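batch job 7 of whatever, protein = DNA repair protein RadA
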Amino acid sequence: MARPITAFTCTACGASHKKWSGRCEACGEWNTIIEEAPLSQGPGRGLGTLKGKPIPLSGLATQEAPPTRANSGIAEFDRVLGGGLVPGSAILVGGDPGIGKSTLLLQAAAAFARSGQQAIYISGEEASAQVRLRAQRLGLGDAPVRLGAETALRDILTTLDAERPDVAIIDSIQTLWSDQIEAAPGSVSQVRATAHELTTFAKKRGTSVVLVGHVTKEGQIAGPRVVEHMVDTVLYFEGERGHQFRILRAHKNRFGPADEIGVFEMTGGGLSEVANPSALFLSERGQPSAGSAVYAGIEGTRPVLTEVQALVAPSTLASPRRTVVGLDSGRVSTILAVLEARCGIPFAGLDVFLNVAGGMRVNEPAADLAIAAALLSAREDIALPPEAVVFGEISLSGALRPVAQTENRLKEAQKLGFSRAILPTSTKVEGMGGMRLDRVPDLTKFVGETFGAG
């Protein structure tokens, strides 16, 4: 077994020697040379004997002011970012093709430029003329945005280093290539390398860099997942092509709350903000009908009311269908199992269809009771009270568990005209005058009180 490589260092002057001797040849001191182990004992030679410079360390207490954020003027976009754009931050925006990523970021670049920030938009997928045509269609032709079309990473970094903009938008990261890597653009190695270089540039130069990323069939940003760890913020653009609503959701944010959402409406003039998404999601709700439940949820820091729709019909198939849109299918299967095991309500031989109106996506466990209410309402053909909202988490035993930020949910429901709420018994609520609270301890009691014996 090879003997580990060691180094000999003088404690008086710090000079390194290949072997021990009684006198340091650099400073002339006697008996100051000691033997030191290498920095690492990993496979191969490890880090060897060469040492680096000590880094300065500091305490947790600081007098530094929080970073100054740049507001774009698009309130929903600033909300998702945590209050504005932080200088030197790296942001990754993903979404399905044609969902509106380029449209939103072009509008954001124009808003930043009009507010006095220097903004550069570099397109790797479209020619400059195509981007100009989109800007003219959106009414942004007079915005002082600097535009470029390039895919070579070296040329892009050279341009950004010379211009030193406040905001740089790269559309998209899959089209860039580095001449140091022998791989096609969009490959794992190219995406990783280009994302690393652009993120490092953002930190060193103080430029906020926004990267557009394609998504896979599973809805994840294409390329290595390490790219999401490199950047400070990861935003996903959600929405169905058949709906006019678009939701920008923060899945990761080092400068603000995660799971915050911004709601936009796709119009002929681009994406317009939706200040009150609850009213918009419930605007098409007609007369009370079986299979509909209004859920009071929390998205980031914002309460949002959405409609959960269910349809239960006899199935002619050996394995009944379970079609879920906007909800976690695994969670829905668990709720169906709890209803059958704890409440004795079977769904065998029945097709189940679930949908969240407006193209919204709900991942919160607090939606469990609303899902169960919509399913039972559709199965029993009994409409829920139109003035009631429903929320609560269902455990595997059938008990209902309280959820966070109950007062915010109830205040949003009261603001939109709802006067009744069905929620778990152990929920602590104070000061909700004028609103009837129906507290339910478990799912069995909820079924009995709302739908009879089932």
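notes: The mean pLDDT is 88.
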